[in-house]
Amino acid sequence: MFNTKTILAAVALVASLALPAVAQEGHATPHIEKQSWSFAGIFGTYDQNQLQRGFQVFREVCSNCHSARLIAFRTLAEEGGPGFSEEQVKALAAEYEIADPTADGGVRKGVPADFWPSPFATEQDARDANGGALPPDFSVLAKARGVKEEGLWWILNYFTGYSEGGPDYIHALLNGYHEEAPEGFELAEGKYYNDYFPGHAIGMGPPLADGLVSYEVAEGEAEVPLTLQQYSTDVAAFMMWLGEPHLAGRKQTGFVVLLFLVLFAGLMYATKRRIWQGIEH
Amino acid sequence: MSEHSTYTPGSGIEKWLDERLPIIRFSKEHLMDFPTPKNLNYWWTFGAILVMCLGIQIVTGVILAMHYTPNIGMAFDSVEHIRRDVNGGRMIQSFHAVGASMFFAAVYIHIFRGMYFGSYKAPREILWILGVLIFLLMMATAFMGYVLPWGQMSGWAATVITNIFAAIPIVGTPILELLRGGFSVGNPTLNRFFSLHYLLPFVIAAVVALHIWALHVPGNNNPIGVDVKDKQRDTLPFHPYYTMKDAFGMVLFLIPFAWFAFFAPDILGHPDNYIQFNSQVTPAHIVPEWYFLPFYAILRAIDFNLLFIDSKLLGVIFFGGSILILFFLPWLDTSKVRSGNFRPMFKWFYWLFVVNFVALTYLGAQPADGIYVVLSKICTAYYFIHFIVILPVLGRIETPRPLPTSISESVLGKAH
Questions:
Q1: Cys-Cys with B339: which of B123, B206, B225, B327 at CB 3.0–4.6 Å?
Q2: Looking at the partner chain, which of A9, A16, A253 has a beta carbon nearest the beta carbon of B351?
Q3: Higher pLDDT, A216 or B318
Q4: Are the Cβ atoms of B263 and A144 closer than 8 angstroms?
Q5: Rounded to 5 degrees, what are φ and ψ at B49?
C-alpha cells in the first residue's frame, strides 16, 4: 500500500528538484570529464607503473614548490603503492637533507621514517617565492578537490561509489591552461588563465608540457607517450595515492565484508522466517 | 513496572542475587519476555538499529580519542595520522565518520515512522519527548564532532553555528563567547568541543535508557495503532521473535553502512574539509552536513525583519522553533486515531510533509539566491503550517476509516 504513495512522493520530489540551474558565470567552467582510473570502482587498485611515473613527475616538477608533509618515505614501499623496494626507499631518503636540530650542523641525511621535506621553510618563504600565492600541500589535495555534478547526477554516485572527483579535477586543471585569457577577462599581473580553476586566474603557471619529463621504460614494456595528457593523468593518480595510500586494501576488505554481510543477512532472514513460522502477523 | 516475568531463580546463586539485585529477573522481563505486538513491521526495527549506531559511535569514538590531538596546530594532522599510521585506524575513522550519517539516516526514518503511525499519541507523549531530546543531543554531538578534524568546513561550521547564538538579545554575546572560549573560534573552542563531544554520547545513552523505560510502560505502538487487548492473542514475547527480527534488520542496515565506509567514505562529506581550517579564507559555500540541511534551509529562509525583530533573530527563532515544535506534536495532532493507515486525509498531508522536508534538505545545500530563496520560504512556511494548522484541523474534520477491534483480528483478516 506504500507503493503508490512512494511513487507519488518520488515524482513530486523530482519535480521539486528539477528546477532551473543557477545563472551562469560570465566565463563558464567547461564540464569536467570523468577519466577512467584504475583505482575507481569496487575492485579498484593502483597501477604500480602509473604511480611510479606520477612519482617521477611529482619529484622532478611539483615538489620544487609543493610540499607533501604527511608522507613518510617509508610509505613508498608499502603494499598497494608504487611498489619501491625498501632499499630503493632508503637510497631515495638518503638523497634528501632533513632539518634536525639534534644533528651536527642542524641537518642530516634522510631515513625512510622521515617525512617528505618541504621545499620552503615557512609559509611566508613559499609565498615570497611564488608571487604571493601559496602552493598547496599535496598530502590530501586530491581529496580536497571535487567535481560538482550537474542536476541530480550526484545521486548516481552514491550507488557507483564514485570518489574520483579530485583526480578528475586535477587532470582537468593541468590541461586547462590558455596562453591568453579570453576576451573581456581581466587577468592580473603574474596570473594565468585556467578553464577549471575557480575564478580562472591561477597563480601557478602551466607546470607541465609535452616532453618535460622523460620516463624510463623498462625492457619489454610498452613506450609511454611523453605528453601533457599522460603526465597529468599519472600525477593525478599519484596524488590520489598520496591522499589514500591504503585505498586498495580498503576496497579489498570492503568486498569481503559486503559479501559476508549479504550472505549473513540471507541466513538471518532464513532463521527469522523459521522462528516466525506459523505465527500470523 | 508491569510484571510479565515467569522467572524463577534456577540455582542458589541466582536466588541469592535475585533477593539483592534482581538484574536477571529485570533482563528476562524486559529483554526476553516483554510482550510485543505481533504485527510490527520492519520500520519498527530502527529502534534496535539506532542502539547499534550509538554503540558503534561510542566504541569507534573511544578508540579515536586515544590517537587524536585536540590542538589547532595538530588536530588536522592527527586525523590523517589515524588514517595512515594507526593499525586499523582508517577503518575506525571511516566507520565513525560514515556512522554519524547512518545514525541520522536511521533516526530520521525512526522519527518519520513515529509520525506516520501516531506513536507520539497518548499514552506515549513522554516517550516521544525523550526521543526529540535525544535528537537534539545527537545534533549537538554531531556538530561538535564535525569540528574536531579542524578542516575548513569544521572551522567555518563552528563559526557560523556559534554565531547563531549571538542573535539572542542581551545574553547572546556572552553565550557566544562562552561557547567559543574567546572572541573567535580557536584552540579553546576545539578543546571544549572535544570534551563535550566525548561527554554527550553518554548523556544520550542515559536518555535512551529513559526512552526505553518510557516505551516499556505502555508497550509498543503498532501499525494499526490499536491497543493490545489480549496479551495471549495480540502479542509475542520480545525474544526470540523480535530479537531475531531486529538482528536481521541490523545486518541489513550494515550493508549500506559498509558500502559507504569501504567504498566511498568521503562521499557524504565535503572536499573542503580536507583543507586545514584557516580563519582568513572563507570557503565559497559553507554547507553543513546533509543531516542538518533542512534546518539550515529554514535558518537561511528568514531574511526579512518582522516588526521589531530583525531577520537574524527571527531566523534563529524559526530555526529553534522548527525543532522545538516537535515537543508539542502530541498535543498539536488532535486526532484520536493513531495509525495513518486509517486516516485518509492525514495520509496525503503526511507524504506532502515528507516531500517538503526532502525539498528543504535539497534547498539547504543550494546557494542562497534566486529561486532557491523563494522556494525555501514556501517550504519553511509549509513546515510550520503542517504542525500548527493542518494537524489540529485534520483531527476535527477527518472521518477515519473503521478500526479493527484488535491486533489479532487485523492480523487474521489479512489476505495471505
A1: B225
A2: A9
A3: B318
A4: no
A5: -60, -40
CA–CA dist B48, B123 (Å, integer): 21
Q: Counting every residue, how long is chain A? A: 281
Domain ranges, ordered by start, for chain A: 31-71+116-245
**Interval B295-317: pLDDT, tens:** 999 999 998 888 888 888 999 99
Q: From CA B377, how far away is CA B374, in angstroms rounded?
A: 5
pLDDT value at residue B7: 86
Q: Residue A45: which region, alpha, beta or left (left: phi > 0; alpha: psi -120 to 50)?
A: beta
Q: Are A142 and A239 a contacting pair, CB within 8 Å?
A: yes
pLDDT, mean of residues B362-377: 92
What CATH number matches the domain at A31-71+116-245, 3.90.79.10, 3.30.420.40, 3.40.718.10, 1.10.760.10? 1.10.760.10
- Across the interface, whether the CB atoms of A144 and B271 are under 8 A apart is answered yes
- With a CB cutoff of 8 Å and minimum separation 6, the contacts of A105 are none
pLDDT < 70 stretches in chain A = 1-26
pLDDT digits 0-9 by tens, B371-414: 999 999 999 999 999 999 999 999 999 999 999 999 988 887 76
Cis peptide before B404 (omega within 30 of 0): no
Q: What tens digit of pLDDT does each residue of B208-265 get? A: 999 999 999 999 999 999 999 999 999 999 999 999 999 999 999 999 999 999 999 9
Q: What is the DSSP letter of B28?
A: I
The three-state secondary structure class of B251 is: helix
Cβ pair B97, B269 in contact under 8 A: yes
Q: Could you report the per-residue pLDDT of B64-89, keeping only the tens digit for each? A: 999 999 999 999 999 999 999 999 99
Contacts with B, A 8-27, CB within 8 Å = 8-9, 12-13, 16-17, 19-20, 22-23
